[in-house]
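Structure ticket #2291
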Amino acid sequence: MRPFRIAKANARRLPALGAAFFLALGLFAPQAHAADTPSAPQARPAAPHAIPVPKSPDTPKDARPLAADAGAKTAAPTGGGTVGAPNTAKRLSAAANACDVSSFTGNSGAALVQQVKSAGLDCVNSLFTLTGTDARGAFNEAQMATVANALRDASAAYPGDDSTSVGQLVLFLRAGYYVQWNHSDVVGPYGTALRTAIRGALDAFFAAPHSKDVTEANGQTLAEAVTLIDSAQENGRYTGVVKRLLDGYSTAWTGSMATAVANTETVISQGFDRPDFVAALQADPAFATTMASFVTRNSAGIDGGDPVTRIGIQIGKLVADDTLRAQGRPIVKDLVNRYPLVGKTGPLTMNLLWFAEKKDAGNCSYYGTCDVPAKLVPLVLTVDHTCNANLRIRAQDMTAQQLADTCTSLVNEDAFFHKLVKDSGPVANDNNTSLEVVVFDDYYNYSLYAWEMYKIEVDNGGMYEEGDPAKAGNQARFIAHEASWLRPQFQIWNLNHEYTHYLDGRYDFYGDFEAGMTTPTVWWVEGLAEYVSYSYRGVHYDDAVAQAGKGTYALSTLFDSTYANADSTRIYNWGYLAVRYMFQSHPRDVDALLAKYRVGDWNGARTLLKNTIGTAYDADFAAWLKQCAADNCGSLPANQAPLCTAADTRQFDKNCRRDGVAATTGNYSYSFLYLPAGVQQLTITTGGGTGNADLYYNGGSWATTGSYQAKSANGGNGETLTIANPPSGWVYFSLYGQQGFGGVTVTTTYN
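Resolution: structure written out below.
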C-alpha cells in the first residue's frame, strides 16, 4: 500500500481501528490525581486526517489477535469440528467419499438418529459442506429437532466418552446450524420446535455428571458441545457453563479439555452481540470477575496468541457496552496496569487499552493511561539511529548494516529527486528540515502499536505525517514496517515511495497536505512517488506496464484523479504512467506545473492541466501506452550509485561504483566483493569510457576468459551481468581488455 502525506491540522477523528495492545508491570499505576470513578471526558489530540490505502496482498495473517480487526469476528456459527482430533481442525470434505450422504437425507426419526450415531466422526464432519437439496434433506428443522431430542435422551447416561455416540449427535447439530446459516434459503427457517429441543439437549448434556470429567475422552465431546452453545445462539442461557470451565481450568488441562476452554471464547465473543447474553451478564456480575480471575491465575502461560489472551481480550467488550461498563472499568483498569506493554502480554493489554480508549473515550486519567503514547516510544522503538542532521531512524529491530543501507538509500534518493525535479530549494515557509523514519518489525507490530503511539489508522502499509510545515519545530514522520514476507531479504515496505512524499512536500508543494488537495493533484502526488521509487531502485514496474496495455484512461482523465474517485490501480499504476509520460515527453510542462505548485497556485496549476494542456496530449499518450505495453516505455532517469569506499580499489560493496577503471589490450582489471548469506540477485554493470571491455564473473576465484561462470561481451563498454542466488562469501569479476579501455564506470548492486 502506498500511504501518503497527511496533515494533523484540521483533522477528523478516526473510526474504530483494528489493533492489539499492551502495558508494563506497574507502569500504569493510577496517578495521584486519578479519581476512583471516571471523570468528565478529557480532551485528547485529534487523530490526523487519513485516507485508507490497501496494504500489500502478501502481508501475512498473524495468529495473534487484533481487537477490532474487521475480519476477526463473524456472527456465523463456527465451521468444522475437532471431535476425535484434539487441537486440530479436520478437513471438512476429506471423508465425504466414504460417507453416504443419502443415509442422512433419506432417513428421519429413529432411523436418522441411528445413522448419525453409527457414522464415523469424519463422516459427520464432512456434512458441514452440504449444499442444495442435500442440505435441506439433512438439516431441515424436523431433522434437527429429532437429533437434538436424541442428544437429550443420550445425555442422561453420558459416560464421559464417545462410546454412546454423543459426539456424533453434537457434531451433526453443529453442522446443521452452520449449513442453515449459510444456506437458509434452501434449508428453511429454524423456529420454536428446534429451540425447545436444543435447550433440552444442552441442558441435559451439561447437567450430566460425566460432562464435568477432566479427561481427554470427555474433552473431545465437551469442546464441541461448548461451540454448539454459540451455534444455537444460546449464549445467554449457558453463561454458568462458561464460568464453570473458566473457574476449573488449570495448566493441567491439556488436549481437548484445553480446547473446550478455548472454545468458550466464541461463546463470549459472539454473545456480546446478543441481548440475552448481555442481560445474563447484567444479572451476574461474577461472570466478569471470573474472566478476570481466569486471566490473572493463568497469566504465566500467555504468549500472545493463546486462549488466556483471547478470552482476556473479551473483557474489553464490557466497557464497550453501556449497561456493562461499570462492571468492566475496574477490571480493565487493573489488567492494563498489571502487565507489560512489550513482550508476550502485549496483545492482551494493548487490546484492552484499545477498548478503554475507543469505547470509553476521554477517561485515560481513570485508567492511568494518558501518557501511554510517550512511554511506548522508547519501549517499542529500541533502536535510535541518526543518518545525518536531516534524517533519523527509530526502529523496533534493525541491524547496523540495515540501518546503514537504509540511510544510504534515502540519502542517495535525495540527490536523485533534486536532479529530477530541478528545484531551487524548499518552498517558502517549510520548516520540515528533518524526517523521522519509524520502522516496526512487521505489519502486526505496526498494527499493535502505531495506532496509539501516533494516533493514526493502521489498516494500511504505512503512513507519512507531514503535519503543519509552516509551524516551527514541526516533525515530519514516516511510520512504516518491515516487509516480513520478503525475509531473509530486508526491506522497509514503501520506504522510497514515502520518502518521495517528504521530498515532494518540502520542495514542490506549498503549504500542508490539505492545501495541496484543494484541486485534484493525486495523479502527481502518488504518480511521482511511484516514478521515483521504481526509477531510483531500478525496479521494473510490471503492474504499470501491464496496465498500459489496457489503455484504460486518457491523460486528461488522469489529471482529475482524487483519492475519492479513483481506485488503487488508477492512483498508483496510472499515476506512474502519467508522470513518466509527462517527464519524458513534455518536461517543460512539468516545469511550468511545478512552478505553480511551489507557490500554492492550485487554480493556476489546474488551468494549465485542464485548459492549456487539456486533451492535446491524449492521442500521443495513447500511442505511448501501446509502446510501453511492449516494454518500450522510453529511458528512465539515470541513477548513479555512490562511490565505493573500501581502501582497496579492487573491492566493491552493495550499491556502489568505481569510476575510471582501465586496462590495456589483453589485460584485466580484477575486482571482488563480499556477499552476505541470502542474496537473491547480484547485478554488475559497466559503461562509459573508451575502448572495449568484456565482463567476466566467477563465484569463488579470479575471473578470466578461461575461468568464468558468466560473461557479457558486447561491443564497447556497456556490459551487464545478473547472477541469481550467488554464493555467500567472496565472489570475483573482471573486465578484460578486448581493446585497451579507460574511464569505465563499474557498478555493483545486490538484494
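Closing remark: Residues 400-421 form the longest helix (22 residues).
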